[in-house]
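Board notes (copied after class):
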Amino acid sequence: MGHSNSEGNRQRWEWLRQYPIIAPSLMCADLLHIGDDVHRLEAAGADAFHVDIMDGHFVDNLALNFDILKQVRSITNLPIDVHLMVDNPEAYMERVLAAGADLCIFHMEASRFPLRAIQKVHTSGAAVGIAINPATSVEAVRLLVPQLQMVLVMTVEPGFAGQRLLGFTLDKIAELATLRAKHNLDFAIGVDGAMDIEAVSQAAKRGASFFVGGTSGIFLRDGTDFAAAMQRLREAAER
């Protein structure tokens, strides 16, 4: 996982080895009752919570913030991954890590000094991931993957829930899985965007193990409860 990482870090990262990991995206929760949703999702079998932080610049939307992250951290012991959809992610990392993120994911397209950013996260003991947008190639992160605990493949353009899956992005999962096997590496492959049952199944077959669940998979408008929705995604990942 990168030769400079301590054994203590590895223990804190152990949860990323689970298969599959279903991580509900809290930007899709009922924000007026987010605490209730966190408890309900945990009872329904969530493996982790995915917290999106947006700045209105890198993506033209705003999402959750440090205060919500702290409050979520105070009511759950599940791992929390924070997805920074922001320009200059390094400026946000200290506060995200102090607020209790177990995994900090930043965008390759937004970071001028990604190795420095990776080091900053590792120094705190948290795991680090890099997200790649649909138009960003695997080649862009090839030199960094030995240092990473996750690569998050965006299967939609980031910033908004409810988009349609961009099918060509799934090929990057297979490419990352091949790279991982070839170099005997140990990073998880995550997917974020339009993760319904079919997309989870397709992504899992190609080597993904971490699935962000939003309005396509968990927060369904047809009355499906969280437990049933998550069970369907888990079964799709294990098929």
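Comment from the instructor: Helices lie at 7-13, 34-43, 66-75, 90-98, 114-124, 170-182, 197-206, 226-238. The chain has one domain: 7-238.
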